Amino acid sequence: MALLVDETATAPAEAPPRRRDWRQLLDPRYLTLAVAALVVAYLALVPIGTMVYSSLRTNFLGLGPGTWTFRNYIDTFTSDGFGTLVLNSFVYAGATAIVCTVIGFLLAWLVARTNTPGKGFARVAALVPLIVPGILNTVAWSLLLSPQRGTANAGLRHLGLPAFNVFSLHGMIFVQSMHVVPIAYLMGVAAFASMDSSLEEASLASGASPWTTFRVITLRMARPAMLSAGLLMFIQTISTFEVPQLIGVPGRRFVFVSRIYSALQTFPPDYGTVGCIGIFVLVIAAVGLWMSRRMSATTAVQTITGKGFRATGQDIGKWRWAGFAFFVLFFLVAVALPILMLIWSSLLPGFQQPSAEALHQLTFSNYAEIFRRPGLVNSVKNSFITAVAAGVIVTVLAALVAYITVKTRLRGRGLLDGLATVPIAVPSVVMGVGILYWYLAAPLPFHLYGTLAILIVAFVTITLPYGMRYIVPGMAQIKDELEEAATASGAGWWQAFRRIFVPLLMPSLLAAFLYAMIVSFREVSAAIFLYSSGTEVVSIQIFDLFSNGSYPVVAALGVVLVLFLSILAGGVRLLTRRFGIRNG
C-alpha cells in the first residue's frame, strides 16, 4: 500500500516540467537557433524545389497557364547532340578529377611524408591558385596557349615542339586541373598527416624500396581520401562556368554548363531544357557525393591507435631532389606563368608577345582605365558589398548551426547538419538557376531580382557548407563546462556565446569569413544567371570585357583583384595567430 500511495503522490508532479519545457521554447536561445535552422532549410531546399518544378511544367514563367508534363525531359534527352554533350561533360570532369587528384596528392605526399626540401615554398605554391579567381586563370591560359598568338605556344615553336591548342577538350582539362589542384592538395595533406608512419617504416626495414613502400602501403592507406577527392573534383568541375564558356565554346566543345547558359540566352529562354539539364547535373552530383562517402566508409584503413601515434616523414634519398624539382615545375606552370601573363598584358596598350621592342610600350594606362570606367568601379563596389555581406552572414549562420549540432541535444540536429551540407551536392550553376527561378516565379511580397541581395543569397548558400567545416571542429574543442560556468554565474545564453565561444572560435570564424569573401569575389557560375544592369560584380565584368576583346583592361583588373585578395588572406592569417584556438 505504501508503494501505491507513493506512486499516487508523485504522479501529478510530472506535468510542471512539460510546462517549463514549453516556456523554454520562447527563450531567446531557442528562438535564435530556430530562426537559424529555418534560414538554412530555406537556402538549401528552395532552389532545388524550384528547379524540379520548372522541369515538370509547360510554359514556365510564361503568360499563359501551364500544365504538368514530362515532355521537357523527353525533348531534352532525345534532342540531337545530347549524347555528345553527356560524353564531353563526363570526359572533361572525369579526366580533370584524375589529373588534379594525382598532382594534388603527390604534392601532399612530398610535403607531409617525405624529407623533400623546400616544403614551405611548396605550401605557398599549392595554395596561391586558390586566391586567383578561376576566370582570371582561364583568361591567362587562353592568352598563353592561343594557337596563333599564345606566348607559351611561341616558346614551344621556338624549341621545335608542336603548339598546344587550348581551345580543345584537352585544353579545358588542363586549365581546370591547374585551378582545382589546391583543393585536392589540401585533402591529401589532411589524409597523409593523420597516417601512422610505423607501417611504412616496417616496410622499409624489411628491405622494400621507397617506391614499393609508396605503392603498396602509402597509396593503399590514402585510397579512401583519393577516391573522395576525385569524386568531389568531378562534382565541382562538371558545374564550373569559366572554362567551358571561355575555352570550350570557341573550340566547339560543349558541356552541360555551356548548354544551360545558351538556353537562357535564347528568346524566349528555354526554361524547360535548363531545368531538365540542371536536375540531370544535380542527380550526377548527388550520386557522386554519395559514392564518395560510401567509398570512404567501406574502404577506410584504420592506422591511428592509442599506441604512440606518429606521423613522420621518410627519407627518399636522391629522389628528394626530384620532388623539389616537381615543386618548382608546379609553381612555374600553375602560379608563375598565369600571373606573369596577367602582369605583362596589363602593362601594354594591346596584346603583344614579350620582346625588347614591347618593353618600350609599357604603360600604366590600363590601371588608370579601371577608375575611368564607371561600370568597373561600380562592379568593384558591388563585389565588396556582396563579399562582406556573404562573409558575415555565413560566419554567423555557420556558428549558430555548429552550436546546435555540436553543443545541444535538440531533436533534428542531424537533419539540420545535413541541410547545411546539401549545397555541396548542388553545382553552383544549378544553384544560380534555381535561385533565379524562385525569385522570378514565387509570389513573394518582395522582389530580389535586380538587386545585390539575390547575389548575396547565392553566395551564402554556396559557401555555407564550407563555413560549417571550418567552425564545427573548433566548436567541438570547447568543453561544455565553460558554458555551464557562465550560466551558473548568471550570464544569459547570448552573453555566454559572445564572451566564450566567439573569442575562442576567432581563428575558425575568421577562416570561414575569409573563405566566403574569396569565393564571393571569384564566383561566376551562379552570378552569371543572377546579375542585372547595375548589379554586375567583378567576375561578371571580367567575363564581359574578355568576351569583348579588352584583354589589357581585364589583366589590369585581375592583377588588382589578386593583390587585394592576397593582402586580405595574409591579414586574416595574421589575426588567426593572435586569437582563439589555433588549429593546424
Topology:
Blueprint: H1 2-10, H2 15-24, H3 28-55, H4 71-77, H5 82-113, H6 119-131, H7 134-144, H8 151-158, H9 169-193, H10 198-205, H11 210-238, H12 242-248, H13 256-265, H14 271-298, H15 319-346, H16 356-359, H17 365-372, H18 374-407, H19 413-421, H20 428-441, H21 452-477, H22 480-488, H23 493-504, H24 506-522, H25 527-530, H26 538-547, H27 551-576
Helix pairs in contact: 3-14, 3-18, 3-19, 3-20, 4-14, 5-6, 5-9, 5-11, 6-9, 6-15, 7-12, 7-15, 9-11, 9-12, 10-11, 11-14, 13-14, 14-20, 15-27, 17-27, 18-19, 18-21, 18-24, 18-26, 20-21, 21-24, 22-23, 24-27, 26-27
Mean pLDDT equals: 83
* Helical/strand content category: mainly alpha
CATH architecture of the largest domain: Orthogonal Bundle
Order of helices and strands: HHHHHHHHHHHHHHHHHHHHHHHHHHH
